[in-house]
Write a structure and sequence with these properties.
This protein is α/β, with parallel strands linked by helices and 308 residues long. The chain has one domain (7-55, 74-199, 215-307): TIM Barrel (Alpha-Beta Barrel). Helices cover 34% and strands 19% of the residues. The protein has helices at 29-37, 81-93, 107-117, 139-142, 145-156, 174-184, 222-236, 251-260, 276-294; strands at 7-9, 12-14, 18-20, 42-44, 61-64, 69-72, 98-102, 124-128, 163-166, 188-191, 195-198, 200-201, 206-207, 213-218, 242-245, 264-267.
Amino acid sequence: MVMSLATKIGNITIRNPMILASGVLGTTYSTLNRMYEAGLGAVITKSIGAKSRSGNPNPSVFALNEIRSVINSVGLANPGYQIFREDIEILMKNSTPTIVSIFGENKEEFKEVLEGLKDLPVLAFELNFSCPNTEMGGAQIGTDPDLVYKIVKELRAKTKTPLWVKLTPNVSDVIEIASAAVKGGCDTLVAINTLKAMVIDIHTKQPILGYKKGGLSGAAIKPVGIRYVYDLYEHFGDKIPLIGVGGIFRGEDIIEYLLAGASAVEIGTSLGVAYPENMVRFFQMKIKKYMKEHQFGSISEITGGVHR
């Protein structure tokens, strides 16, 4: 039996369904390329904005080791698209399949970043409407269906490169936001980003993070991510590709997202270890083993399986 890990996300085909999520190891050319060479299907850059941002005050990351999770308040720290463009150009020369995550504090900034990068032959632009770590953008945009629709529609008119919309879980009705993005012309929905969270030091009686509040990622949010992907597939079926993200630490977690309706997954927190290459090889082995045991020849045969 011929077995292939290749997966299609709309008109894009990547060699396997594992993608480096934005924000963990996507800050430089070398880390992005390292993860692709480790065996991932594609990589996503850290979210890039119109201008340089220093981010939120330290401490900005707190590990919750007992639940294999992390709370962060990094706050979209980045050098701005003009400077980061140099790293993206190197990735393009190396033919590294790259998705660029972009954000803006308003519609005009989204447009500026896209205009500045749209000539690059990247696989897609992932629109970060969902980061809860800044008071000026992100979550505010991602919770407003009218604004989501307007931004996606305007960006759609400016590029033929696929647009992925990363959804925040911090809303009462994700289908409303997702429908606005689809109506605006997005090509793929990504679910989910971090959940609003906080940690307090009981001895100092103060929040531990410098920004006080943050976003939760890691194993604790996987059931939430699975539910969102399931609900999105239940609503859209195979009319719009879905990418699952949140809490992947095992090969079985990837398969669970695929069965819920995802065509691919983004992996972040679990790769922030000393030897992430070993994790990638472990994930691949588990997927292949599952496909062999259940006689699946392709990833598409698994996608949405729980709905059939």
